[in-house]
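Handout, section B. The chain below has 246 residues.
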Amino acid sequence: MSEIKKTEAVVLSKLNYGDSSLIVTLFTKEQGKISAIVKGARSPKSKTSLKIDPLNYIEIVYYNKESRDLQIISSADLMEYYPSIKSDLDKLKFAQSVLELVKNLTVEHEQHVRLFNGIIRIFELLETSNERLNVIFARFFMFFLEEIGYRVHLVDCSVCGKKDLLDKNLSYNFAVGLLCEDCKTNYAESFALNQELFNCLVSLRTSKNLDDIGSQTVDNTLIFMEKYLKYHVADFKGIQSLQLFK
């Protein structure tokens, strides 16, 4: 028997189905990622299709049945649609990258309120903040890795335990972890971490100001995190949205 539920959600993607329906993937506050069908959404009289659009922050009422692959949405109300993001290709690139990560790397029906709030927060920042866009996304990417269980080790050398590694030229082996100047010669290098790059990664983790760090270094942290995730998740092929919008 179906249960009627109401929840906030972010629209990750939508696909036309049949003559007038939509199949959508949502990240909800109550149940994490779900797939659902919106019957008749594309009919001329329906206003639902515009509300259930990728990036939109909505509130839905739906019929939930655990044994069913597609839940049935009965109504949707628009809470925010982020017009500034949708009219700016640079902002859209990073927003779509958020949707891509969440859609591809989260499991269905697993509540994750902290991640849901983080998605809403980055969209708010992309919409209104004056901070550099790549910094906003890099902060989210670091947060996302931690939330899905792939926290980047940055506290001490993974081999000898040496701390106080700021202002050092370090190395990272994706299988072993962070390597200090003494230990890095004994392991294959997955990614070289110069002083500025390591300081940038630490600043992303601790929400420190990045005004003194160059944009190329911030971009290099994105490359590092993408390669790190590729190593740990076999099916992850990189963030396609970052390439499509170049």
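Note. The chain has a mean pLDDT of 93. Compare this with the example in section A.
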